[in-house]
Amino acid sequence: MNTSKPHYLILDGLRGVAALVVLFYHIFEAIAFAPINSTTPEQNLYHGFIAVDFFFILSGFVMGYAYDDRWNRMSLGNFIKRRLIRLHPMVVLGVVVGLICFAVQGFQQWDGTRVALEALMICTLLQLFCLPTPTAWDVRGNTEAFPLNGPTWSLFVEYIGSLCYGLFLHQFSTRALKVWVATAALLLLGYSLYMNENTIGYGWSSQPVNLLGGLLRVSLGYPMGLLLARLFRSRQSTPRSYMFPVCSAVLVLLFLVPGLGAASIYYQLFCLCVAFPFLVWFGATGKVEERQKPLLNYLGRLSYPLYAVHYPLIYLYIYWIKQVNPTGAAEWIAPIVVFLAAIVLGTLSMLWYEEPVRRWLSRKFLKN
After folding, report:
1. 2, pLDDT greater than 50
2. Quick check: 229 and 65 in contact, CB under 8 A?
3. 3-class SS at 330?
4. What percent of the chain has pLDDT over 90?
5. Rounded CA separation 318/38 (Å)
6. Residue 290: pLDDT over 80
7. Alpha-carbon distance 202 to 211, whole Å?
8. Would you say 273 and 224 are in contact if contact means Cβ atoms under 8 Å apart?
9. Domain-by-domain residue ranges, the chain?
């Protein structure tokens, strides 16, 4: 690894902020999916789901920054091993946690139907290999592509994005990447308009039209990050100690924008094509003070484990709401407990599993 390259701690911190936003978004989603009572508000973090697209841009930026200048001494096989070591340990743990939580729910679909052992085994095996589950083996009954741990769909399409980068995107000129990004943005917009939907919220379902939309999302976000890394290569960082709090506040505000009806699709593409790239750019230009480093380091390390294991807890939260129909203090204490439990589970996964396993795999399978 080329250790002479600086580490972008602000981008690590922003990735952590985005992961926390996803957690909050899914908690609100649970309340909306299993309403506690007739006065339950709608999703309070309406655009939180596009945090996934921010992750895609960050991933592309990091890939381009870390590997663009290494292809003369790195094989495709070595690159794939690096991506597997980086991503797959948490894919496996997410399936394990999801299976445990599904067992707590009695191995039942949302409508109470008992799941056949064959379906559960096939679903588990597919998810261990980060492959979508066809509807015939959907163990939850709402067409999720990854019904034991829903957000794994984004890791599936990120694998595809990484493979495309290793196969051909790293060979693209900067001009060709610009054309790719512009074309992907138009295709995503056209697809959403053709589907008569006001959102780019695709990818989570095993339905082909939904999975295709998820592939279109990563085909925009990931190359956008690669393009930013190319354009940023000659820039110099400048001391801006305020950059992390400012970028974090702007990022959260972008997610808090409510639904805009037919204009929502245009707002979401504005975030993907303008707002998010600017945040990544400005975040990469800043430096941090010593007192900020522990927090940003923790947020960066926590972001992926938290993202990978939090959603099975959301399943349990939905199940609990449906079973108990809580009222009074329990109604509002429960989401706080879910939030804290997810942070603890993510932190323990990071310290006791993800980082040790990645170090062991790197020593065993990577030579440089």
Report:
1. no
2. yes
3. helix
4. 79
5. 16
6. yes
7. 7
8. yes
9. 9-365
